[in-house]
Specification:
By secondary structure, this protein is an alpha/beta fold. It has 4 domains: 208 residues, 3-Layer(aba) Sandwich (D-Maltodextrin-Binding Protein, domain 2), CATH 3.40.190; 191 residues, Periplasmic binding protein-like II (D-Maltodextrin-Binding Protein, domain 2), CATH 3.40.190; 86 residues, no CATH class; 175 residues, MetI-like fold (Orthogonal Bundle). The strands form 3 sheets. A 6-stranded mixed β-sheet has the order 2-1-3-11-5-4, with helices on both faces. Strand 4 and strand 5 form a beta hairpin.
């Protein structure tokens, strides 16, 4: 496996040299990846500009990535021995990254005397080593209230419900709630788990094992459901952005959010206050938010001493007293340095005073890798309760079972099995074929290269290197991973084990369930892509005036980036505020549809979004085909008395087949492998992981549960499925062409 790793590093460095060649003149270039929200990003930009002004030989490239994208991209880049020198994120990413040896221990890089100047919560440790230094302490949830609507925050759960009900109003009497008393991202476990402590238990044990099947969990499940269905003080569907928008627009009196949101609300000029989660009356206990930090970790792949020195220089600057106070002034963060807390900016800040009281009842954020499996298991079952497909008791029991199962899979270290011999035979066959192929053509190549064709070969070399780097090599590397035990615990010392993962996929009932959904997803999308695309092409070409105008307008859905379209459509499907349900209610007098709360309606929402994205491509292809059809054929058909449908059936459609069939096959392959729409519209497979297709299932296995070998095997099976599908379709097309000729 050493050969694979060295080759992987070489290929990655080649690609990096091509991409980052514009930075070759910089003395030192340090990449910083982060997940700060917009208001914090603005402050970070000012701070980095100040650092570069003071250190003219150092250039800092700052890149924003959403939290989950940050994790997956950093893992991928680190495989090739590269990645950013500094990574900024929440403390719970330390456990997985440290286990995979992606980040460097800081104990020998930052003196003990310097570390003692930080709050212990800001020094994130794993296995007795420090891997992260936070510039703030907190990263915790709290109750945030709009002082115009809620002069005094509720102290107890009963008060919260009472205030929430008094603020939830339909001002114009149209049957839709215009103002809610309470709003938060209640479908995500992170926003839910503080309530569990309020009912007398914690979601993890002291030994970092899941503790999900408890009375406290059942009570918390029931309370979240009652907030929506019994007390009706929160929206029926509400993700983070929806809750945030309602609060900033004054349409929600209270919200559960974190200290990272203060700068955003400050910029929006919201007069807000913060408070603890309300006391649970039945237990007389405070819900306990998870308290941790967001901070900086150093990439373990830095080998150049000068670059490491400059990286530490930047790290010290970003965590300095002066920088922390700049963030405190601009976005009200709580400094992690003790000396910074003595500054009047902190002492006289009422928000930070209250924050310290909230943290007193908090619980430390777990940083062990197993917490990812706990989140994943809890998330699905919690959403099943909200969807009404499981009782709190059933969900708690199943969540515990799934968490234990996933932790076992995550920590499993597989050893070579008897099928490894088959793998070596496969590699030997591939190598033998390649050697035979090269041997039969090497003489001709050398003759051409030494002769008149030397220049074309040199011109083709960069393209060949690029194709090899980004297509050929990754394919064979993924093939090797599919036969390996590559996982969380073997990230840097994986080995080939045989066909274990292929066997696991084939015997897993979940695979066939997801495969069936993928087939339905692909067929339905391609059907509507072709149908709508051809219909619009015929209308534009044969009916509509100003053809160029209509072509331009109708290609816009394809031109807009997928992620923007997907997030826009997700907002349109909102049960209460989405334009689609408003249209159904006001114009068709239908009941609102829970688009994003039920499995098949969510799946349908994803299909609708992808149809919108895909039909323009088929329309353009069909327009090209229509322009090649002679108008004389239509004139002859009209003279023979053929109506519009008959002309389409016997002339248009048959003559479009040579262009539509290849386009449909290409569209099927694209659709089969579309991740963005499913992931963004369904919010990572909601509800309860019921809207996954194969490619999103692979992504979750690799980057959420760290089962890289399993994900690689599943991706190879997807490749085989697509190859077989392409061969079958091409054979059918060939037979059809021969029968028509």
């Amino acid at each position: 496996m050493i050969l694979f790793k060295k080759l992987h590093t070489f290929v990655f460095l080649c690609v990096s040299m091509i991409i980052f060649s514009n930075n070759a003149m910089a003395n030192t270039t340090i990449q910083l990846w982060h997940q700060m929200i917009y208001s914090h990003r603005e402050v970070l930009k000012k701070v980095v500009d100040d650092f570069e002004a003071k250190h003219p030989t150092i250039k800092v490239q700052v890149t924003y990535r959403e939290t989950e994208e940050l994790r997956s991209a950093f893992q991928s880049s680190s495989m090739g021995g590269s990645g950013p020198e500094l990574i900024y994120g929440p403390s719970d990413q330390v456990g997985p990254f440290a286990t995979m040896n992606l980040i460097r221990p800081l104990d020998n890089l930052i003196p003990i005397e310097e570390q003692k100047k930080f709050d212990p919560l800001a020094l994130v440790k794993f296995n007795q080593k420090t891997y992260m230094i936070g510039n703030t302490v907190g990263n915790f949830l709290m109750l945030i209230y709009n002082k115009k609507l809620v002069p005094n925050p509720p102290k107890t759960l009963e008060e919260l419900i009472k205030i929430g009900q008094s603020l939830t109003k339909d001002f114009n009497g149209d049957g839709k709630i215009d103002q809610f008393g309470f709003a938060f991202n209640f479908t995500e476990p992170f926003f839910f788990v503080p309530w569990i402590d309020g009912f007398g238990d914690h979601f993890m044990t002291e030994k970092n094992q899941p503790n999900l099947n408890s009375k406290a969990m059942i009570s918390a499940f029931g309370l979240m459901r009652d907030f929506r269905d019994k007390y009706k003080i929160i929206p029926k569907e509400c993700d983070y952005e929806m809750a945030n928008s309602l609060f900033k627009e004054g349409k929600a009196g209270m919200i559960i959010n974190g200290d990272w949101s203060w700068g955003d609300y400050k910029s929006a000029k919201i007069d807000f206050g913060i408070a603890r989660f309300p006391l649970i009356n039945s237990t007389n206990l405070w819900p306990a938010p998870l308290v941790g930090t967001t901070g900086y970790s150093v990439n373990a792949n830095i080998e150049d001493p000068l670059k490491l020195k400059d990286t530490l220089e930047l790290l010290n600057f970003l965590t300095s007293k002066e920088t922390q106070l700049i963030f405190t002034k601009e976005v009200s963060t709580y400094p992690s340095r003790f000396e910074a807390r003595l500054d009047p900016l902190v002492i006289n800040n009422d928000i930070l005073k209250e924050a310290s009281k909230i943290m007193e009842v908090g619980k430390p954020m777990p940083v062990v890798p197993e917490v990812r499996a706990v989140w994943d298991s809890l998330r699905g079952q919690y959403q099943s309760v909200l969807a009404g497909s499981a009782t709190p008791e059933q969900a708690a029991q199943k969540a515990q079972e799934e968490a234990l199962k996933q932790i076992q899979s995550m920590n499993e270290e597989l050893t070579p099995g008897p099928t490894l011999y088959l793998v070596w035979l496969l590699f030997a066959a591939i190598l033998g074929f390649l050697l035979f192929y090269i041997a039969t053509r090497i003489k001709k190549f050398l003759k051409d290269f030494k002769g008149a064709n030397k220049f074309p070969y040199l011109m083709m070399a960069p393209a060949f290197i690029s194709i090899f780097s980004v297509i050929i090599y990754p394919f064979f590397y993924n093939l090797a991973l599919s036969f390996s035990n590559f996982s969380l615990k073997t990230f840097n010392n994986w080995t080939l084990i045989g066909l274990h993962h292929y066997q696991s996929v084939i015997v897993d009932p979940k695979f066939y369930e997801v495969f069936l959904k993928t087939i339905i997803w692909t067929i339905s999308n391609v059907f509507f892509h072709v149908s709508i695309g051809v219909l619009l092409a015929v209308i534009i070409e044969q009916v509509m005036p100003k053809k160029n105008l209509w072509r331009t307008l109708l290609i816009i859905p394809w031109a807009v980036p997928q992620y923007i379209t997907a997030l826009t459509w997700r907002g349109m499907f909102n049960q209460e505020y989405g334009p689609i349900n408003i249209f159904l209610q006001e114009y068709l007098k239908l009941s609102p549809i829970q688009w994003l709360s039920q499995p098949w309606t969510t799946f349908s929402a994803c299909v609708i979004t992808n149809v919108w994205l895909g039909f323009p491509f088929m329309m353009i292809v069909a327009l090209g085909g229509l322009q090649s059809i002679s108008p004389d054929l239509y004139e002859s058909a009209k003279m023979d008395g053929a109506n519009a449908w008959q002309r389409f059936k016997h002339i248009t459609w048959p003559m479009l087949q040579p262009v539509i069939r290849p386009a449909a096959l290409l569209g099927a392959i694209w659709t089969f492998n579309t991740l963005n729409v499913i992931w963004l519209v369904s919010n990572s497979g909601e509800p309860a992981d019921q809207t996954h297709i194969l490619v999103s299932y692979v992504y979750k296995a690799a980057f959420n549960l760290y089962r890289y070998g399993y994900a690689a095997a599943l991706s190879m099976i997807i490749f085989i499925i697509l190859i077989v599908m392409s061969l079958v379709v091409n054979k059918i097309n060939k037979e059809s062409k021969e029968s028509n000729s």
